[in-house]
Structure formats: structure tokens, C-alpha cells
Amino acid sequence: MNGKTKIAVFASGSGSNFEALEFACREGELDAEITLVMTDKPASFVVERARQTDIRTVALEPKAFPSKQAFEEALIAILQDEGVEWIVLAGYMRLIGPTLLAAYPSRIVNIHPSLLPSFPGKDAIGQAIAHGVKVTGVTVHLVDEGMDTGPILAQAPVQVVDGNPELTAKAIHAVEHVLYKETLQSLFTSETKSKA
Ligand code: GRF
């Protein structure tokens, strides 16, 4: 035991947030240990990024299971076996079901590329641009049974860049990579204090 909070990062895509968190843990900016990376998309780039580290990567495809419940039960067995305390979603493109929520109540965190409750769900940046907003942003929140609806922990604004999705996504990612580690650090610190 090294006293660090044990987290699992769930990702379905590029994994730049995973990489930023992994770096923050190594640099001592985030007092946590990424015990494993879980992906539902074995071909996603996050697997490549995780391979550059010595973090265990688990690829579990829901279609390999008879039900969402069975998929989440298999996940829980792995998470509990590794002693995972918090689940950190970083571009994980699936709704968390009741089985996993019950196993990790108020212990699943998500990052979303908009100022919630505006633009929940898929392609939040595209939705913001289509709506013509000039400022969008990033939200870190606890996960509940809804789509991007749980209690908000932190938000930061980001200017929409020339109505351009790629440039705006780049600006959003830069903010995400700072906001996520800072929010998790204060979450874990306040938990450690309340346990003491
Ligand atoms: C991020 O914009 C995050 O807010 C959203 O999915 C994206 C994941 O990016 N949930 P990456 O895979 O971490 O690069």
C-alpha cells in the first residue's frame, strides 16, 4: 500500500486524457495510481498509449457478454480484484448501467466537452457549433444513471474558435488535461481528509 488512491481509467478513443492523468500521477500532481485502463474498443488508440506505460490494459467488449449486467459484473470482478476505489471515465462512450453504479456509488467521474447541462451526449462540440454559441467549455461531474446528468464538480469555459470543430476540440482538450487532474486531486484530497 502506498497510500495513493487507486483508479481505473475507462476510455473508448484516443486517450489523450488518460495520458495527461498518467503524466500527472507520475509527476506527483495527482496523488493517485492508475491501476488499470479499461477499454470497450480494443482497436482504440488509448491501448497504444497505455502500452507505452506499464499499466495493465483490459479490453472487454460488451458484445461478448449475454447482457449489460453480465458485462458489468465481469468488470466489477476485475476492478475489485485490483482494489480499484474510483472509476475515471475519459472518453468512454457507453452509459454506465445500474450494476456498476451500485458497485461504485458516487465513485465514478466523467469529463464532458461542454458546459453541462448544455449539449449532453455525443458530439458536444458539434452541437455547440451548430447552435452558434460563442463560449462552450468542459465539465467534470459524478456519474449517475442519466446521460451526462450527475452532480457537477467543476467547469471551465472555452471560446469556440472560428466555428471550427477541430480547433475548438484542440482548445477543449488543452483545458480538459488541466481541469481533470485538478478536480480529481481535490476530490481525493477531501476524501482522504474526511477519512482521517
Ligand atoms: C474528451 O473530449 C472528453 O471530454 C469526452 O471524450 C473526449 C475524449 O478525448 N468525454 P480523449 O480520448 O481523452 O483524447
Descriptive tags:
196 residues; seven-stranded mixed beta sheet; alpha/beta; 6 helices; binds 5-O-phosphono-beta-D-ribofuranosylamine; Rossmann fold
Description:
This protein has six helices and seven strands. Strands 3-2-1-4-5-6-7 form a seven-stranded mixed β-sheet. The chain is α/β, with parallel strands linked by helices and 196 residues long. The chain has a single domain (5-195), classed as Rossmann fold (3-Layer(aba) Sandwich), CATH 3.40.50.170. Helix 1 crosses helix 6. The mean pLDDT is 96. Strand 4, helix 4 (98-103) and strand 5 (108-112) form a beta-alpha-beta unit. The structure holds 5-O-phosphono-beta-D-ribofuranosylamine (GRF). 5-O-phosphono-beta-D-ribofuranosylamine binds at residues 11, 13-17, 90-91, 111-113, 172, 176. 5-O-phosphono-beta-D-ribofuranosylamine (GRF) is lined by residues 11, 13-17, 90-91, 111-113, 172, 176.
Secondary structure elements and pairings:
Blueprint lengths: L4 E7 L4 H11 L5 E8 L5 H7 L4 E4 L8 H14 L4 E4 L8 H6 L4 E5 L11 H8 L3 E8 L9 E8 L5 H31 L1
Parallel strand pairs: 1-2, 1-4, 2-3, 4-5
Antiparallel strand pairs: 5-6, 6-7
Helix pairs in contact: 1-6
Bound molecules: 5-O-phosphono-beta-D-ribofuranosylamine.
